[in-house]
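Write out the 3D structure for:
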Amino acid sequence: MALRRLALSGAAALRRSQGDSTVLGPQLLRTYASTQMTVRDALNSAMDEEMARDESVFIMGEEVAEYQGAYKITRGLLQKYGPKRVKDTPITEAGFTGIGVGAAFAGLRPIVEFMTFNFSMQAIDQIVNSAAKHHYMSAGQVTCPVVFRGANGAAAGVAAQHSQCFAAWYASVPGLKVVAPYDAEDARGLLKAAIRDPDPVVVLENEILYGEAFPIDEAALDKDFTVPIGKAKVMRSGSDVTLVAFSKMVGYCLKAAELLEQEGISAEVLNLRSLKPIDRDAIAASVRKTHRIVSVEEGWPQHGVGSEVMAIAVEECFDDLDAPPERVTGAEVPMPYAQNLEAAALPQVDHVVATVKRMMNK
């Protein structure tokens, strides 16, 4: 039954796209040699190092142990740390999420994996009403150092019920911290920071990025490397317009910036990294420099992360703006299954380019 559900989630297609991953040794298999690391291995190494550092850290979720993880994020960890610290669960998100929250109340540091954040809807009461609020409701006496992580947003060909972006949902909740990594450095640093944090942290990963390799420097490979939660990163400097994005859309913005450069437009790309708390100072500083801003996200437009970015730009930098802020978002529809309609429902690089050119009257 679990494997049938795995196929529905799109993980089987992912495995086919990357070759047969069923033959795995007990050792941790990593693809970085000197300067490259996949997001998958960045997440795996982060959990490995934090489990070695702190015995209170453990992992639980569907298929995380014997099957090595639906997307192989947890591969090798069962063999290294044993079944007490890498625990397969039944298909009951409300149940195992509640166990994870309770374990955090008791002083452990659980990492709760959702095969996809679409399934976290079954556990939203545990996340929002228990994990997020208990520190406040106990007058600071009880902390909840739990991490909720898994694939978020659209994958490919998995239709409406498996393609939603939950960034705006969880980033609206007081008591939660929410991060969304783009590259390998983000994935390692943000996950390690989340595991060490005393508060509940939602880590929104992207399935399409798991197999993508990124350059990574020696500092990011240090076992104590973390990325501060709440701090954005300028991925590309520019002077004419600011492109703000998170997760997979950061890559789209970088590609758009390259195309815009050919048109004589200098685009700055800001990787939010953290959605709650969001880095208001970084957004404002970039807008004051470029005087224009475009937010890009896969999620729906109404009440989205882009809406918050636009509000920050207007509240902090109204007099610095030379053009109205604009958003590029997913379409206001449930995700279609047909490939052509799916592409039409998601932001594309040319949408970003066209928006910027229109903004600059070019």
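Residues 99 and 190 are 24 Å apart (CA to CA).
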